[in-house]
Amino acid sequence: MSRALDATDVLVVGAGVAGLACARDLLAAGVSVRVVEAGDAVGGRMRSDRIGGYVVDRGFQVFNTAYPQVRRRFDLKELRLRPFTPGFLVHTPTGRLNFSDPTRRPRTLPELLSGRLAGPRDLAALGLLSARDMLLPPGRLKRRPDTTARTAFADAGISEAFVERFFRPFVSGVFLEDELETSARVFHLVWRSMLRGTICLPTEGIGVVPRALAAGLPEGAVRLETPAAGLTDDGVLTTGGQEIPARAVVVATGPGAVPVLLPEVSLPDYRIVTTYYHVAPRSPLGEPTLLVDTRRRFLNTCVLSDVVPSYAPPGRTLVATSVLGRDGQGRERELRAALGEAYGTGTDDWDLLTVRTIEDALPAMPPPQPLTRTTRVAPGRYVCGDHRATASVQGALASGARAAREVLRDLRR
Ligand SMILES: Cc1cc2nc3c(=O)[nH]c(=O)nc-3n(C[C@H](O)[C@H](O)[C@H](O)COP(=O)(O)OP(=O)(O)OC[C@H]3O[C@@H](n4cnc5c(N)ncnc54)[C@H](O)[C@@H]3O)c2cc1C
């Protein structure tokens, strides 16, 4: 560093993964940093609760080991991850189809080639698209002109029927929209990570991920239950009326507080999702696999306790099912009927444990997507989070990293 910095160089507002990653990078560069967080724990959208012996994430989500920021920042062993099978199941009106990645599970190749999932042309087009996404350097993917995921599938020679049976039900659960209007660039990068990595859940719940980041900060660096009410010329004003001075402020609050703290920053629309957590007397599946529905009555469902047995008390089964939008009257009843059909089992003896609706779950990512945006807003003011990059943990972490780089560059000038 060209010169020593004051005691409170940077104040990060928000202890989601973006804010925590930013704080960690600043700290590693020798800058003093504090974080204020409105909630009673770190994690933002990645938090887990315990309800009567069950682990309940605040909305079903998965953790992808191939994300570059994940590989850079985490000791995956420490997170004690449990994998999903590489692939997913598709419930169709004519029965269940199984898509398993043949490069990881060669013994599933005969089933893939049987024609039940797709004909030879679609399989060849899927293979080519996947090989390109997996093998081309990401820079090439990023430089391609952007379009919607739907157009990208058509351009890749994939038939509409196969898109409806395979990509649409699966992709809706990833981007929390079911019109395939998400940027193709974002789709290709996410598909690349799915093919190269493993989707997992930490044994103690998704909330372990931000806690691992926070554990690398000095004690007392994160102040919980301290919402920022506004930015001042010298730092941040908390809702308690205290002014915390800082040379630079990074707003990492997610969409809720950005309009108040930084009204000049425009935000994308956000997707709403609801996850229903059911307790069943036994597993209706018996394998750690995602199940999607061609009729899209739900985005995806899985038997969480088949993935991570400790998500449920011994001998009990926890099922998570996500739907687009909010809960509403009769929605759970209809969902239960759809789940009964998809799992091929009665659901009368299932109990609803809890429901989680996440209003600002994921930013919409229509084309063209720049993938990453500057975090500089004004001198000494920065913004980061998944809305400044891609809608994922990778995007949030990368945006936090970019904020740290930009703050450092400006402080050292
Ligand atoms: C249901 C669901 C499913 C998902 N599935 C996946 C998935 O499978 N894979 C994937 O990669 N990603 C997934 N995501 C996305 C991922 O969780 C987010 O992209 C990421 O957690 C966003 O982190 P962030 O730090 O940008 O924002 P946030 O997590 O929203 O963090 C913002 C923080 O700021 C705090 N804050 C707000 N206002 C203030 C204030 N005024 N003062 C102080 N603090 C404030 C909040 O309390 C919060 O802690 C999913 C998200 C949800 C909700």
TrEMBL record:
Record-linked InterPro entries: Amino_oxidase, FAD/NAD-bd_sf
One Pfam family from the record: Amino_oxidase
Domain Amine oxidase: from-to ranges: 17-408
Source organism, top-level taxon: Bacteria
Transmembrane regions: none
Alphabetized Gene3D superfamilies for the sequence: FAD/NAD(P)-binding domain
PROSITE patterns referenced in this protein's UniProt entry, alphabetically: PROKAR_LIPOPROTEIN
Name of protein: FAD-dependent oxidoreductase
